[in-house]
Specification:
- This protein has 477 residues and is α/β, with parallel strands linked by helices.
- It has two domains: 268 residues, Aldehyde Dehydrogenase, Chain A, domain 1, CATH 3.40.605.10; 188 residues, Aldehyde Dehydrogenase, Chain A, domain 2.
- Helix content is 39%, strand content 22%.
- The chain is built from 15 helices and 23 strands.
- Strands 15-16-17-14-13-19-20 form a seven-stranded mixed sheet, sandwiched between helices. Strands 10-9-8-11-12-22 form a six-stranded mixed sheet, sandwiched between helices.
- α3 crosses α4 and α9 packs across α10.
- The relative contact order is 0.14.
């Protein structure tokens, strides 16, 4: 297999890292080596932040209309190169190639276009005389240079979620993609460089130590990551040392609460898709079914049947594949470990094993008989594993749904409007779906509470997170 030697993208051009250490890129579908990245060091990060700092004045001073046009042009360039993005994303992640353009590339393009519009929708309050003889008004300004770290589960989507609002608001960026999935982010940086001052977006490759150095760098006025709870805590602790702003989108353990009056067919379709899409490597994945005892057995049978016919795993070029491999050998071991440690009262209804001997494929897995205190209920598995619990009344369902440390997303399935309204209020999650699970739109915010972090991606709220507020008062009396 031919291999690709990747480089950092700094100040509008590809640059060799100032280090000799490199890391192999492993194809998760074949376990073959197809490239390598540098393990960038402090000198590389210094260069990236210097470039971002130099680019900031010009990009900050561009009018909102100018920034909007630039983001539209970047979106158009992504559209023209959508197939190239899909090829790179499929190689890095093993995702089914046939669906990538519609599932993820077009979403990323739409998100860029949304934030292009947001660039010209700066919200402010009316100027006025709140003190006699003085006029006050509010300025909304870019924060400055932003350090960002993105994950491996949706490499391009998560890069756009971070980059688009930051650039729309007038900031410049230094970003480290996940070490195993860098290619689509580098292509995005190449396109951005064609339309912005050199250094507006800089991409530095590397591992955990590279990310830690990027977050700790004194030039960053804000750091934003999507990642694990452990990584988020480390970032928050590091940022506290010099009072950087922090934006954290972390893990999830999303419940899907199914009542006895729900449409079982609709619930099953939504839950199976929400649980197994992207091999369950999604912070909003439907990981916990909480179902009324009276329809528990019916729902489990239907979930198993639907999973066995529709949730097939396989290689990126195979036909009829719903999801690809897990991201790495370590992720495969983590998922298998959760299954191997299931308590005696749990029952594996389907799946529970690796698929094949090559590639990190894992069968779609449904486990019934679970209890609230079980590890697989409480901790994020981040794989194609769905647990099932039963409840007898509304209060018990709410207690079980809210009884984890994560609070990113949840869903409720019912035909009762009053109950739906109560659950959308009382479910302690940043996003609550009713009679569906996992759809996103660029116009609505994404972000959680508790161990799922803070700050919002997408929407006008996501744009606002990359701005600061200044009060200006002028005396005239």
């Amino acid at each position: 297999m031919a291999t690709t030697t990747l480089r950092n993208h700094i100040a509008g051009e590809y640059r060799e890292a100032l280090t000799d250490e490199r890391l192999d890129l492993i194809d998760p579908a074949t376990e073959g080596v197809y490239g390598s990245i540098p393990l960038s060091g402090v000198a590389d990060i210094d260069a990236a932040y210097a470039a971002a700092g130099a680019a900031f004045p010009a990009w900050r001073d561009a009018t909102p209309g100018d920034r909007q046009l630039v983001l539209f042009r970047i979106a158009d360039a992504m559209t023209a190169r959508a197939e190239e993005f899909a090829d790179l994303e499929s190689q890095d992640t093993g995702k089914p190639r046939a669906t990538l353009v519609a599932d993820e590339i077009e979403q990323s393009i739409d998100q860029l276009r949304f934030f292009a519009g947001a660039a010209r929708s700066l919200e402010g309050r009316a100027a006025g005389e709140y003190l006699a003889g003085h006029t006050s008004y509010v300025r909304r300004e870019p924060i400055g240079v932003i350090g960002q770290v993105t994950p491996w589960n949706y490499p391009l989507n998560m890069a756009v979620w971070k980059i688009a609002p930051a650039l729309a608001a007038g900031n410049t960026v230094v970003l480290k993609p996940a070490e195993s999935t860098p290619q689509s982010t580098l292509l995005l940086a190449e396109i951005v460089a064609e339309h912005t001052p050199a250094g507006t977006l800089n991409v530095v490759l590397g591992g955990r130590e590279t990310g830690a150095a990027l977050v700790a760098h004194p030039s960053a006025q804000m750091v934003a990551i999507t990642g694990s709870v452990r990584a988020g805590m480390a970032v928050a602790e590091s940022a506290a040392s010099d009072l950087k702003r922090v934006h954290l989108e972390l893990g999830g353990k999303a419940p899907a609460v199914v009542f006895d009056d729900a449409s079982i067919d609709k619930a099953v379709d939504a839950i199976v898709s929400g649980a197994f899409f992207n091999a369950g490597q999604d912070c909003t994945a439907a990981t916990r079914v909480i179902v009324h005892a009276s329809v528990h057995d019916e729902l489990v049978r239907a979930l198993v049947a639907r999973t066995q016919t529709h949730a097939r795993t396989g290689g990126p070029r195979e036909e009829g594949v719903f999801y690809g491999p897990l991201s790495s050998a370590a992720q495969l071991a983590q998922v298998q470990g959760f299954v191997d440690r299931l308590p005696g009262h749990a029952k594996v209804e389907t799946g529970g094993t690796r698929v094949g001997e090559q590639g990190y494929f894992f069968a779609p897995t449904i486990v019934s008989g679970m209890r609230q205190e079980d590890e697989a209920v409480q901790d994020e598995i981040f794989g194609p594993v769905l647990t099932v619990q039963s409840f007898s009344d509304d209060d018990e369902a709410l207690g079980m749904a809210n009884g984890v440390r994560y609070a990113l997303a949840a869903s409720v399935f019912t035909r009762d409007h009053n109950r739906a309204m109560r659950f959308t209020r009382d479910l302690d999650f940043g996003c609550v779906w009713v009679n569906t699970h996992i759809p996103f739109v660029s116009d609505m915010p994404h972000g959680g509470f508790k161990y799922s972090g803070y700050g919002k991606d997408l929407s006008q709220y996501g744009f606002d997170d990359y701005t600061r507020i200044k009060h200006v008062m002028s005396a005239w009396g």
